[in-house]
Amino acid sequence: MKTAKKITVYTAKKIITMNDSQPTATAVAVRDGKILSVGSLADLKPWLDAHPHEIDNTLADKIVMPGFIDPHLHPMLGATALYADIIAAFDWRLPEKTYTAVRGKEAYLARLAEGEAAMTGAPEAPYITWGYHNLFHGDVTRVDLDKISLTRPVFIWTRSTHEMIFNTAALKYFNLTEDETVGNPQINYEEGRYWEAGLLGLAMAKITPFMFNPERYLAGTALNGRIIHFGGLTTVAEMSFGLANPELEWMAPNKLLNSDDTPFRTYFIPDVQTPSAQKGIQKAFEWVESLSETSTHHLRFIKNVKLFADGAFYSQYMQTVTG
Q1: What is the pTM assigned to this prediction?
Q2: Among 160, 280, 297, 322, which is least packed, fewest CB within 10 Å?
């Protein structure tokens, strides 16, 4: 017969329960990672009389509340976007650094020029920024980015991550040619703009080796883990697992975020459209079925799938149909 683990009771100055019938408490009983009961020490007495327990007063002078849940975080994108230079319309306060908000086209381009000028190492190393939004930063195209540099590849990733804008050097660096854009309504080659299917269906395949360089991606995953904890999140969801590089997208969190030291769980929702296009729908769903076998306490696959039906509302490409 398996012996039940000891109950740990955490006391606190105040516990915010998020339960209208009992909004606050001063003690919570936990066993094997699960909450058994919450209230006062007197309320928990039946549990404590019946089971081995210990009282932990570490949080006795603190206010405790449930962790936040982000059901559509995209840790994969965070590991790449937030490891870039951040130039956004709002302050981004990360654990080690705060990126001050920039607004207006002139100010945005000036900050972009500063970031490119601060680059070290090879002069042909790409400079990538994330956070651009035309409502706050004006319309920026290849012409503007060419004024930043004609030699260094410069490209900006929009706030929604559904669009990128490249300078001429970046188009050449990633071998993005005009002839392959013919007939694609979501590419404006003259302006250096690739969005939605133009980005995911064409450009991303060519820039993936740079964006998902293992060393860069591991560092970005570690940073993203610190950001998730910094924000008080205890559960997050990756809503398009396998979109770019399934092996790397699993390897990095499995290596860095799959331990008792990680204070949050990640749920992975597989992108089924990319493997369907590559291997057929039957193989794609067999792959989805197999993923659940690799689930751990911290990293979990559930048998749902991600389908791309339209664009992102944040990038103003979402469309609705009434009928």
Answers
A1: 0.83
A2: 322
